[in-house]
């Protein structure tokens, strides 16, 4: 990748927990490409993870705790980031997702609806809250870029993905709807990246995840995209090279989303010779 793609740019990275997080890789790559960043996560997640180690690696950048479902916390986050940067923000990564129903093994046909509200609030509505707060505060520079991470379960059924599929569908809808309004007012572009199944703390909690990664690998012509490759793609979306890309769901999955079936998968169902 070319160097200094983000030189002079300033951004907020939501969701880095530990070295397995895609957000962790994005933070490292953003700084390597010349950006200044602020890291944020929910206070409980910060206690579970090692985000302060990442901050030390990223030029001792600030870590501002924020519950992404709290409008008050999000406002304080943007205020703190702008105070640190001495001005507006150029890019934001939304890498947040959590389902109590999935964590507790609730079947999709037997959801706890209070849990479902939490799933939607944390995994999707938090993006709307962040965008609405940024817009009201005029916190993002014109031609800024916001990227949220999603998954193909928003378009296709994966039985064990549960209510996270509904959350990702909502996340992508918010991206399109808010992308229109923020584009008209400030030329801010908003996109989702639909990533291959990736070994992260959140992903590994889904039932049958290891088996599905193997399946996805065998279905994808290029194989699964890993977290570092996803980070590189995020960097291009934050850069000026993608100034006119907005309101899109961009598949970064080695071709999985457009593959009906692969020869490798077909071969597993060939009848045995007698």
Characteristic key phrases:
globular, alpha/beta, 274 residues, six-stranded parallel β-sheet, 10 helices, Rossmann fold
Please tell me about this protein's structure.
There is one protein chain. The protein is 43% helix and 14% strand. By secondary structure, the protein is α/β, with parallel strands linked by helices. It has a single domain, classed as Rossmann fold, CATH 3.40.50.720. It has a six-stranded parallel β-sheet, sandwiched between helices. Strand 1, helix 1 and strand 2 form a beta-alpha-beta unit. Helix 4 packs parallel to helix 6 (113-137) and helix 6 (113-137) packs parallel to helix 7 (164-186). The N and C termini lie far apart (52 Å). The mean pLDDT is 94.
